[in-house]
Amino acid sequence: MLSLHREPITESPLLRHHPSVTCTIKRSLDILGALVGLGLLAIIGLPIALAIKLDSPGPVLYSQERYGLKGKPFRIWKFRSMVQNADALKSSVTNQAQGLIFKNEADPRITRVGNILRKTSLDEFPQFWNVLRGEMSLVGTRPPTADEVSRYRPHHWKRLNVKPGLTGQWQVSGRSAIKDFEEIVKLDLIYQRIWSPWYDLKLILQTVTVLLNRKGAY
Q1: Positive or negative CA dihedral for 202, 203, 208, 209?
Q2: Model confidence over 149-170: pLDDT tens digits?
Q3: CB 2 within 8 A of CB 146
Q4: Closest C-alpha to 34, from 135, 143, 120, 114
Q5: Residues 6+ away with beta carbon under 8 Å from 28
Q6: DSSP labels for 139-201?
Q7: Can you name the residues that pair with 73 across neighbouring β-strands?
Q8: Quick one: which of 169, 88, 164, 173 has its CA closest to 127?
Q9: Is the pTM of the predicted complex or chain greater than 0.70?
Q10: Which backbone phi and psi does 84 adopt, to 5 degrees?
Q11: CB 113 within 8 A of CB 134
Q12: 78's torsion region: left (phi>0), alpha (psi -120 to 50) or beta?
């Protein structure tokens, strides 16, 4: 189903177009939100970049191949919150999560500035560019890595019926505190079942509250 040698994922027969994919209201909300987010990024980007450079050697931005709608690969962008060789050091860090995700509450690869960026979600601001390009949405599912989708079972593919999002059902239900991948899949499918443009607005407002309270962030 998947080749990790720079070949795209073969589309799963379980994947179907979800109404949110072609919803004009949702796309308009994404474009508006992305423009606002990129405007804020233009203001806060330089101070964040300076803090990252002064804190640890390496690039300001971090990019990684992720998989979105119907398993289509795209390159996600974030402010770098870990040491430069974090991917190579991943095998030395204990995974505290269950299933096809990786989480560690005290990941030693995270820098001092990176810890602040993650707790405030400022590291994710460059992803507004992904939203503007249509690769992501403001609200959706967490975009998986190649390593994760290579181990997907049939029911896992259903979560890719929608675009990946900056926030989603998992974000307002515990964020990083949710350590069971099957629970994340369950939340993704609940979102798809009850989705509407107005529900997206509700999740966005709830996300703001969660971020201000810094619940489940690390």
Answers
A1: positive
A2: 999 999 999 999 999 999 999 8
A3: yes
A4: 135
A5: none
A6: ESBPPPBHHHHTT--GGGGGGGGS-BEEE-TTGGGTGGG--BHHHHHHHHHHHHHH--HHHHH
A7: 67
A8: 164
A9: yes
A10: -60, -40
A11: no
A12: beta
Distance CA(213)–CA(218), nearest Å, equals: 13
90 with 104: CB under 8 angstroms? Answer: no
Render pLDDT for 101-143 as a digit per residue (tens, 0 to 9): 888 888 999 999 999 999 899 999 999 999 999 999 999 999 9
Q: What DSSP character marks residue 208?
A: H
Residue from 129, 4, 2, 20 nearest 71 by CA: 2
The bridge status of strand 73-79 relative to strand 61-67 is antiparallel
CB 131 within 8 A of CB 138: yes
For residue 213, which amino acid is it?
Answer: N
